[in-house]
Specification:
10 strands; single chain; Alpha-D-Glucose-1,6-Bisphosphate, Chain A, domain 4; 6 helices; globular; 32% helix; alpha+beta; ten-stranded mixed beta sheet; disordered N terminus
C-alpha cells in the first residue's frame, strides 16, 4: 500500500509539474506581420523556453529552401555569425556548427547542432528538429559551448494556402548570463529571426525554389505517390 501511495503521489506531482511548465505567456506581439512570441519557465533551468508563431504567404518549398541554406543563416537568424555544415547525412539531415554573438562583456557562444528536416506525406507538415551535440567537436577557447539545445521549426499548411510557422526552442547557454540578457534572448531571438524570415522569403532565390522530397500541394503529393507505386 505504501508503494502504491508513493507511486500515485509521484505521478500526481509529475502531472502538476508538467502542467506548470506547459503554460505559455504572450511576451510580444506584432500585429502588422501577425507574429506572436510566447515564453514559459522550464523546471531546473534559468532560461525560459520560447515559441514564435505566425502565418506566412509562402510555399512550403520556399520555407524549406531558406532553412536548408546554411550560408544565408547569418543574414536572417538573430545574432548568428556563422552556420556551417560539419557532416551531411542522407536527406535533409546534417550536423552544423553555429556561432552566436553576444553584447560586450558577455562571451559569444558556439554550438554543434544536428538538424533533420522531414515532411509528413499525409499532412504535408514540415518539421525541422534541432538538438545540441556539444561533444561532437572540440571546444574553442574563444567561445562558451552551448551544452543543451532542443527545439526547431514547424511549417503547417493552412486551408487558405498560407503556412503556419512555429519556431520553438529551449537552450542552456552555458556559463552565466545576466538576467537582462537572458530575458532579452528568449524574446528577441525568435522575434527578429522570424521577422527577418519574411524579408528573405521575398527573394527570388526562395520564392521559386524547389527542394528535393518537399511537396507544396496535397494533390501533387498524391500524383507523386501513385507514380512511385506504378514503378
Amino acid at each position: 500500500m505504501h508503494y502504491i501511495l508513493t507511486a500515485f503521489l509521484t505521478l500526481l506531482f509529475s502531472m502538476v509539474s508538467i502542467a506548470e511548465t506547459s503554460e505559455w505567456t504572450l511576451d510580444k506581439e506584432d500585429d502588422e506581420i501577425g507574429l506572436k512570441i510566447y515564453t514559459r519557465n522550464v523546471e531546473g533551468s534559468n532560461l525560459k523556453e520560447f515559441k514564435g508563431e505566425m502565418n506566412v504567404n509562402a510555399r512550403l518549398s520556399s520555407l524549406a529552401a531558406l532553412l536548408l541554406d546554411n550560408k544565408s543563416a547569418p543574414k536572417w537568424m538573430h545574432n548568428c555569425e556563422k552556420f556551417e555544415v560539419v557532416e551531411q547525412f542522407e536527406g535533409h539531415d546534417a550536423i552544423f556548427y553555429l556561432i552566436n554573438s553576444a553584447p560586450w562583456p558577455v562571451s559569444d557562444r558556439d554550438a554543434v547542432l544536428r538538424s533533420a528536416l522531414v515532411q509528413d506525406p499525409e499532412t504535408l507538415t514540415i518539421t525541422a528538429d534541432v538538438k545540441a551535440l556539444p561533444e561532437r567537436l572540440p571546444e574553442d577557447d574563444d567561445y562558451i559551448r552551448i551544452p543543451t539545445m532542443k527545439g526547431g521549426w514547424t511549417f503547417s499548411p493552412n486551408e487558405d494556402k498560407t503556412v503556419k510557422v512555429v519556431y520553438q526552442v529551449h537552450a542552456e547557454p552555458g556559463g552565466s548570463l545576466p538576467a537582462w540578457l537572458a530575458n532579452a534572448v528568449v524574446v528577441d531571438t525568435p522575434y527578429h529571426t522570424m521577422k527577418n524570415m519574411l524579408d528573405m522569403l521575398k527573394k527570388d532565390k526562395y520564392a521559386h525554389a524547389s527542394v528535393e522530397n518537399i511537396i507544396d500541394e496535397k494533390d501533387v503529393a498524391v500524383e507523386v505517390i501513385e507514380a512511385q507505386s506504378a514503378q
